[in-house]
Methyltransferase type 11 domain-containing protein
Amino acid sequence: MTSSTDNTVHPLASSAFTVSGSSGLYDRARPSYPPAALTRIFDALHAYYDTRSGPSGGCGLNIVEVGAGTGIFSRVLLRPPAGVTTHDVTVAKLVAVEPSSGMRDSFREGMQRIGVPVGSNGPSGVEVAQVVDGTFDRIPVIDGWADAVVIAQAFHWSHGHYGAAMREIARVLRRGAPLILVWNLEDRSLPAHPWVPHVRDAYEAHEQGTPQYRLGLWKAIFEMDEFRENFGRDYEYVEVKWTLPTSADGVVERVMSKSYITALGETDRAAVERRVRDVLTREEKVWVDEKDGMFEYPYATDLYVIWRK
């Protein structure tokens, strides 16, 4: 197994997510993933399951999730919600790779809530779910162990180290297996939700040059030798638009869970909160229950399925 001395996690993400992970803010504020996107992920897993052979055949899939955070995606992978078509695909072992100790602690707590024991020994552990320290270029599993690699809401943080990350992902993936990249992004394109662009403007002004997904910097991988040598160019992209019910407090917590907002000083965070609450007071909303202050929060989930050669 190879490793790199380079840390492929942005330093701001490493420090801020330790804070928001250990406090419970991140897990509380961030959304899960819509059934339509999860069904497409299980479609890809099923397509691979039907074609594979070798020692892991017939006993479920070995999955690596890099940048697993608090386990928001991991939980729906192991316990899919209603409306998700799984094709009876099962997970033999999920190795969640996460560099932040605060996030790993929150991962264990989240799994405990749904009754899933968590180990820390990786592929050799007896528990189905394992959470281990690691990064995009340091995945602690042997060559060709993974039937899929999933990265949810995280791959953009490997900016500047994409080549090393793609080499390492290719190393752990079996031939023909999928790399699945997925992101949730607040949908600012819908006229029915005019508050969303203003809220995004309020917090995106503080990005501090961080490589946010919305900027598309991560797409540089498609022109890299590390990608071309190891992955097919016929990847699939799917966008799923959906809404979830929220409140003003819920929107504020979502904003505060952004890494670069967490990293701000108390005075600046308070100023961002005031601006967000002013927007929510001023702009029209699509009400779910106006009496209780609940309204729609629109999201777009972007999903990429990329196949290992």
Observations:
- Confidence is low (pLDDT under 50) at residues 1-6.
- Residues 35-51 form the longest helix (17 residues).
- Residues 11-186+210-243+299-307 form a domain with the Rossmann fold fold (CATH 3.40.50.150).
